[in-house]
Amino acid sequence: MVYYAMVRNKNKKFSTKLFVVVGAFSHLFKSPIVLSWVLAVAGLIALTAMSVPKLRAIQISVSDLKVTFNDPPIWLDDSLLLELQDVARIHLASTTVGREGLIQTADALAATGWFNVIKQVQWVNDTEAIVHASYLIPYAKVEDQNGIVFIDMQGRRLPTRVGAIVKPNYHFITLKEPSFERPMRPGLQWNGGDILAGLNVLKLIYNKPWATQILFINLARWTTSESLMLETDTPSVFIWGSSPGEEHGLEALAEHKIERLNHIFTKYGRIDQGIEAEFDLTNTSAVIRN
Q1: Which of 256, 266, 252 is nearest to 209 (CA)?
Q2: Which of 116, 226, 238, 286 has the most CB atoms around it within 10 Å of its CB?
Q3: Which H or E element spans position 144?
Q4: Which residues of 53-75 are buried (b: 16+ CB within 10 A; e: fewer)?
Q5: Contact 170/150 with Cβ under 8 angstroms?
Q6: Does domain 62-135 have CATH number 3.40.50?
Q7: Which listed CATH number (3.40.50, 1.10.150, 3.30.1360, 3.30.300) goes with 140-289?
């Protein structure tokens, strides 16, 4: 008897407290100020929910998906851009719309080797996504025993593919006969001081009006004399010599070599004057024709 009496007593106390709490809330909501604040907060929550694209927990077919890249580089060939879009579409379609699919897609794009950083893959709506990324930018070609591959300004290898990488209206100078084999995978830097020396020369000449006359920077003599050669489309050869800033004694400085080539180009319209010959730029007094 005592046990049941205690239970009824506790229930009565609980009912009294609940009645007091409900009464207090009812009193609050009778206030116009409180009610207006509640409605305002509820409205903000509703607007926020409406402004965010609704992500459905379903899979979307590849044909229904649209993927765009934010501000793709102008040099990128259209066929390569379509290929990268297909990579993204396939991975987005293989999972439900949501964070997991975005992460998988970013990883898949990074694995292609064409990007420096995948910043974000973002849904625009249920069937459209946009990719924000920075790309490995081709700066030169390297020709080795396995063919030709692009490298960036730091000497990092870009991927290869069947089809164009860069639009055809761009001129790239090729570094040939490197001392070391190409890196095993894209994104890795090419070993060897000869590649870096060739890139240092290229940085001096790439914006010169006569740069398109140069087809190759030959690295063949680097291992024996640390000397580089320029080869033109005539063809002719210019002995450039040391890497810029590392000239040997009694060797013309890089800036003097550039000044002489500028002078010859201004006078003749071609740095080799249209002659098939070998020219030595290392002499401190003049360009010598061997």
Answers
A1: 266
A2: 238
A3: strand 140-144
A4: eeeeeeebeeeebebebeebeee
A5: no
A6: no
A7: 3.40.50
Query: What token pair was written down for 172?
Result: 């790239």
Contact by Cβ (8 Å): 222, 193: yes
Q: Which tokens belong to 73?
A: 């580089």
Which one is predicted more confidently, 63 or 279?
A: 279
> Six-digit token pair at 168?
């055809």
d(CA 213, CA 240): 15
pLDDT in tens, 185-213: 999 999 999 999 999 999 999 999 999 99
| HEC letters along 188-231 | CECCCHHHHHHHHHHHHHCCCCCHHHEEEEECCCHHHHCCEEEE
Q: What is the pTM of this model?
A: 0.76
State the residue for tokens 């239970």. Answer: 7
